[in-house]
Queue: 4 jobs
Job 1
Amino acid sequence: MKRHLLSFLMVIAFLIIATASSVQKNETSRFVMGKGKKESGPDRIELYDGRVIEMNELTFSGKLFGKTYVETNEGRIPWKEVRAFKRDGIYYLHYGGMELKRIIHGRINVYAEDYVRESTEYNTRTQQSVQRRHYLIRYHYQRDGGPVILLVDQSGIEKAVAGCKPALDMVNVPFKTFRKSVRKNRNYINQVFERFNSECK
């Protein structure tokens, strides 16, 4: 009896966590990645010292003494010196050991990050815990060249576009209204930031 009660309570707890996660997902995982909207110009790398090196095709070398290098016309550049790069028309920010893909460009840049989250799920039938890997995307923004900030929820989007009334009006609404707009229009969150970039220069 106690074992069945414990299993039931664990299922309830898991459902509560899953529900909370789904609410968060509905807010900030609905960016449209902008496939096909490639940036023009040659491949390039931007270094922390301010230099920009352009090339016809950006290639990376393998491991050399434990470090990855970028092959350029000026020789090999250590990966740790690269602040950002553009390859095949896609711009990436090298940040905290991650490669963040830029999907919105302007006063506010929005970046997408692929990451893996591991979780433990309890199987009530076998009464065993199962490890699972979830391949997800999370988003970051950078305003006016400032710090890179993780976008977590609706209030985070409000902070990102603060001071821009046209964009803020799209977000500063009750949660249910905001969620309904996002579900109805798959471009809605993109449009919040695009409106900031076009109307609040």
Note: The chain is about 30% helix and 40% strand.
Job 2
Amino acid sequence: MRKPTSPFDVALWEEIQPFLHPPAGSKEEETLARAVFKNLSGEAFQDAALQRAELRSTGHYVVELFFARYEVEVSLDRMKMAALLIKQYPALPSWKEAGITKEKYFRYHLEYYINEVNIFKERVAKLLGYIKNSCTKVGWVEGASEMEDLRTIFKESLRALTGIRHDHVHVRRYKDMRIDQLEGLEIFGERIPELEPVADDVYRTLRKRYSSAMFKEVSRLEEELDRVLDRAKAVAFKPVEVEVK
């Protein structure tokens, strides 16, 4: 996770610190242990009454908020990873046997990236939704409404920022004539050796262009995320200050 520098992340770290080092044997320590275990293991609470109590506890809210924020950062890291790997092609002997061509390697990481953009969108929406639900639980209607509005605005801004590519990731493959050209050159290059250097030139151009564009897009997504979280900060930590009856 990036070093907490935005107002939201700084506030989140300040809120979670007491729960990272609670007094031994205290109720806070029990709350933290159960909340962390639930997140790391995927285990759901068996006792419904206990679950409701945990959802109403300050420690659980902050820990859940932290994990939701962390998942958003994981998506950003994975997009950066794809942007880096897409410009590399470690041609291993076993790859040729498996039919892993430059085009297939390139397209795999491009589609992984496109899919991760969509996951990023859903994780941010989930984070804002969690804040909204926390507001609802304490009866703060204005806060819940503000979070719902912000979630809608975020989704629209992301659509404008990233274009339509991620909308079609589950409908059709992303199309680029240069990628299709690379595929054709590699297919015929097996029989026409003169085409191999042409394929290498096309691949080199694609790697440079897409990797640079993907890194720039991630930077824009980080800026958009910071703007959204700045607006969410005033609401996000309000449920912590409200005593739930």
Note: Confidence is low (pLDDT under 50) at residues 44-53.
Job 3
Amino acid sequence: MRRFTTQIAAVACCLACGSSAFAQFQDRQVDRFQSRADRRLDTYVFGEKAHIPRLTSNMYKQANVICWEMYRHYNHNQDYKTIYREMYEIRKAALHIQGLVKEDYYRRTHSDDHIVRDLHEMDKWFHHVETDVHDWRPNVARTTSGGDLHAKMNRLKETLHHVMKDYGVKSKIEQTVRRNTRNDPFQR
């Protein structure tokens, strides 16, 4: 609030002094905003690990919500038990990664990085579950509060890939898909 009133006072002072002072004030504000935004964009580095704690927490929460969504609204679909078990494994892996992050495991150097292995496994499981639930529909009687499994899966996929990018891990699944579509004459 104090900053806002200071800015109002500065604008009022600039208006009283003349329009050129007000224009200079506006230019400084725009430059300050742009330089802050440019710094944010310029400083992002693949594998920087700057957002790992927040992202892994979100990833676990989203996986947990998807498990509950499947249990409450999609348990009548074909192969539910098998697919739910796979999604539960994703949830457990996300919790495990979150635990490693809380112990600052990701800040140490390792010859065999456990988080990288877990992220690759999660990515593989996730894309398998994603294709299996593609045709799933919610229970007709319970659609009032649920039924948004596909949107939740998309959010988890975005978070998982963001974690991978921030940790410096490239998705083996997406690389394989890109490589196959480049060689497929029907995908052009």
Note: The radius of gyration is 24 Å.
Job 4
Amino acid sequence: MGLSPMAELCLVCEGEPNSIDATILKQVFVSVLGAGISIESGGGIKGTGPIAAFLRRQRGGTVAYVNDRDYRPRDDAERAFADGQNGFLWRRHSIENYLLHPLVIRSALSRVKERFKPRANAPGWLAALPDDTDEISDMLRACAQSRAPEEACRMANHRLWKELPKSLGRIQKRNPPLDAVDDRIAPILWREALCQEVKRVSNSAAATASCMVFSRQNAIRHFDASFDEITAESYIGEMEFLIDFHGLDLLGELRLRVSPGRNALPDDRLVLGAAAEYEANPLLYGKDDFRDLANGVRALAGLGPVGGP
């Protein structure tokens, strides 16, 4: 990981240095908000917190991190914004969800058309790209309806694990531990440690298997409830799926519908479109998530907020 010069404030995001996460945060925090926060990339969700801690130790200053909400409840993100800690969650499923607003899509497609405009022999598929937000919205709704079964499965799976008692489901491979003893080289002690570890895993697996949370009936109940929720007329009509669905997968589905066989929605055009539309209307997404995140990081350092709309 290449480290940029230390600023007073730093935010670690998921992804690699040139990922959508870092690119859009730099575009918005620097060019739009002027938040005075440098952006570093932390890889996957398990890396952001440790890397933030590492940067804090190595370089000082205030270092926070932000992760995708994924399939956690929306309230989890609100709590992360309000608890005064240095870990935040996006209010939407992931950073890609912020690229899926119909106005952002229209702006990105317009930029693609502008790129080809000087050419006399512009490709024929260019004229078929939608430029009406209602048409784009209908495309997004169709994508959501197509993806609803898989999304319901993922949501239900998350809720099943959330419902599982904390004492269960903790089955993972680990090296058998051994309490501090004088003779740590005695084979009999390590043999017994292995037996105790096998017993622990077996007991945990048996208790988890017998728990009614992981019954077929409960799985069906959760799936049906999730599917009914995300296919409800109001949920689809009001485009709530833009908040909760897997953003990258939804974007992939949209790309196929907009222009099959071609990527008419490249990442760079989407990021520029999102930054431009957000700058024009900071409440584009309902709540001003980017400003709230910037202000949350600044508050950790005892600084005032960036300017509001």
Note: Residues 9-91+287-300 form one domain.
